[in-house]
Amino acid sequence: MTRQSASSLPARRISRAAAPRVSAAARLELLDYFLVHHEDLSRCAQASLEWLARHAGVRRSICLAIDGDAGLLVGVAGVGVSVEDVEEYSAPLTHTHDPIVRALTAPVPTTLRPGRDNGHGRLPGFGASPVLAVPLRNDRQDEADAVGVLLVRTGTSVTGEVNWLATVLGQKLDQIRGRGSMTGELRKLRRERALFFTIINSVTDPIMLTDTEGRLIIANLRAEKLFAASEEESEGRRRAVELNNMLFSAALSRTVVEAPSEARELLLVDPSDGSDLLFEVLSTTVEDPREGTGIVSVLRNITDLRRATEQIEENYQRLRIAEAAVRAERDRLNLIIDSVADPIIVTDQSGATVLMNAPSEELFTVAAEAPSTAQRTVQSNDAHFSSFISGLLLGESGPGEIRRGEIGLMNPLTGEPIPVEAIAGKVLTETGELTAVVTILHDRREALERTRLYEQLRSASDELQMRVQSATAELATQNELLRRQAIELEQASRLKSQFLANMSHEFRTPLNAILGYTPMLLQGAAGDLHAKVRRQLTRIDSNGRHLLTIINEILDITRIEAGKMPMQISEFNLNELVPEVMAELDPVISRSKLTVTCRLSAQPPIMVSDRQKVKQVIVNLLSNALKFTHQGGIEIGVDFDGAARLSSIAVADTGIGIAPEHHDTIFEDFRQVDDSPSRQYGGTGLGLAICRRLANALGGRITVQSNVGEGSTFTLTIPAEAPQ
Ligand code: ADP
Fold it and tell me: Which of 235, 419, 476, 551 is 20 to 30 A from 630 via CA?
């Protein structure tokens, strides 16, 4: 099928170029350019019709010519109609009843009306409009010499131009016919044209030939879909076509100006659905001596290609991001693996090592120059490890499966055995495929050493426990013994006290009798006494009294210890008690020739305590002061701390003093600073012992401040209220 594509398109452009009257120059153009230079019938006819369209505004026209060999009158060219329409015109010359065949021989142009004048009832390409059939003949005006018919739509006021063209074209066709076999040439031409259009229509890309101003000369079917629309087609489609033409013209003009042979992208609209279509336009300028300069454009639809490119680009970007993520993940993994002190090995599904950290390398790799023993050790380590891993690889796999086991490895450098605990875990993909096995080797030497030490420690601890148990038992036995001894001692002490109390009592009765009778005898109850007897009686009396003192003091101690000296609590004023004691000892004080003074408390020290016991202590302290002081004086100071409810009585002398090392011993029973048989001072050594016991019973204490030759101060401190 041949198709004169240009026929349907130029309508829009032709209307712009149309002029009411045709200049001589325009006529000359047709004659000179088209008809003189073109030698084939069809092209001359086509060029003439196009000239008519351009210069005379004849939008639709068809040229029919006689094929002498076939005896037919056939359509050879058309403008504003389709190729099919042109080809439909084919009438045998013998059909003289055919209005068009008749028009061939008619002396003047005939007006044909579709449905009436045409044998087929219609005039293809002209619709329902009446058509003017102008016979084409040479200038001899010989009716028999008509070589064809020119069909134009009637109603145009261009009859002059049509007639002129009919004459010129008639002459030309006659001339061509005269030169050779028009029919043969026409057939050849038609075949070539058919082939040409078959070829360009079979190309899936739009192909177009345009003039330099962008006017379409030839277009294939694909191009027509984009750039051509008849008036019957929808408004939307026509608009789209119009837009495409504008876009293409603009692109083409840029191509011509900028880079003619370079491929450009052109965005067009699909007239059928309004979607965007991206084309790559490759334009080539062609020069034809007769046709002039034209531009062949091939449009390649790259919409899908662009989409695919974008998709590829997007996928590539995604791939790169994923790649970077994988790389980062791997770096992180490496960092983790390298920072772990235990050897870690990652193997693939075939058991080949893909990754290992530095501690692993020490076990499983060796330098090429290392001694052969080291090489063998590494091989042996590898074999042990491989057999462990193969167990996991061959065994039934399940997600998160972990295998534990012990492997006996060796240090390749030292040959030292390294027992390790291996823990291997499978790394599976989402679909459960095994991708890698991660194995961590844990050096068990430390753990074994710890276990050994622990065992040692445990046995030592057991032994210690046994010893402690036996020692505890021993201690319990000792305690029991001590307890029994304490009971025995207590019993003995009680018996001793009892014995002393009894004995003292027994001593005192006869002693009292002696002391009763001796003064009586001295006073002459039994008559006058000889001076010698009196002296001896006086000694009996004084020794008897001394003995009584000793017995009384022993009795006091035993009583206190036996708890037989109960507290007699009463309220009294210490400021009154002290002068009372001084008065009681007045004979001794007078004899001593010492100055004894008393400093009483400003605040009345009212005591609720055992008056007798307090008095006994003060008497004792004052007696000692008098006994151990030869010159100077004695001061008794009474103080009362109302807030603390404490009273103190300090007896300070200027006597012989006591060395610090004796400050404690003097309070012990029967202890004196000088306890030699040749001692200067009398006494039992029980006074202070009794005082301390009494002070304790009163809830207080006695302290001493003294140095040899510097006098002594004994202080009794007791609470104002004695404990019950
Ligand atoms: P004694 O009956 O010997 O006085 P004490 O128990 O009262 O027994 O005193 C014990 C010893 O403490 C005395 O023998 C004496 O050596 C010493 N002593 C007591 N009071 C004084 C003092 N005021 N000055 C020096 N020495 C003292």
Answer: 551
**Is the distance from the beta carbon of residue 667 to the nearest atom of ligand 1 less than 6 Å?**
no
Whether the CB of 711 sits within 6 Å of ligand 1: no
CA of 659 to the centre of ligand 1 (A): 12
pLDDT at 157: 56
CB of residue 628 inside a 6 A radius of ligand 1: yes
**Cα angle 514, 691, 501; round to 5:** 45
Q: Is the CB of 666 under 6 A from ligand 1?
A: yes
Triad 138, 142, 146: Cα angle to 5°: 60
| List of residues 6+ apart from 280 with CB closer than 8 A | 263, 264, 265, 266, 299, 300, 302
Distance 654 CA to ligand 1 centre (A): 14
Running along the chain, 724 residues long, what does each successive block of 10 average in pLDDT? 34 33 65 66 84 83 85 88 86 84 82 64 79 78 71 72 81 71 64 83 88 79 85 85 88 69 82 88 80 83 87 93 90 82 88 87 88 90 89 63 86 90 86 85 87 94 94 94 91 79 80 89 85 90 86 82 82 95 92 93 94 94 94 95 94 96 90 76 85 93 95 96 88
CA-proximal residue: ligand 1, atom 2 (nearest): 683
Tokens of 530: 């000889």
The answer, yes or no, to whether any atom of ligand 1 lies below 6 A from the CB of 683, is yes
Q: Which of 460, 397, 389, 404 is nearest to 432 (CA)?
A: 397
Helix/strand/coil for 124:
coil
Ligand 1 contacts CB of residue 673 (under 6 A): yes
**Which residue, by CA, sits nearest to atom 23 of ligand 1?**
625
Give the chain's end-to-end CA distance (angstroms, integer).
146
Query: Smallest Cα–Cα separation from 362: which of 411, 397, 407?
Result: 411
> Using CA positions, which residue lies closest to atom 7 of ligand 1?
687
654 lines ligand 1 (CB under 6 A): no
Q: Of 181, 178, 193, which is closest to residue 78 (Cα–Cα)?
A: 193
Q: Are strands 712-719 and 264-269 parallel, antiparallel or unpaired?
A: unpaired
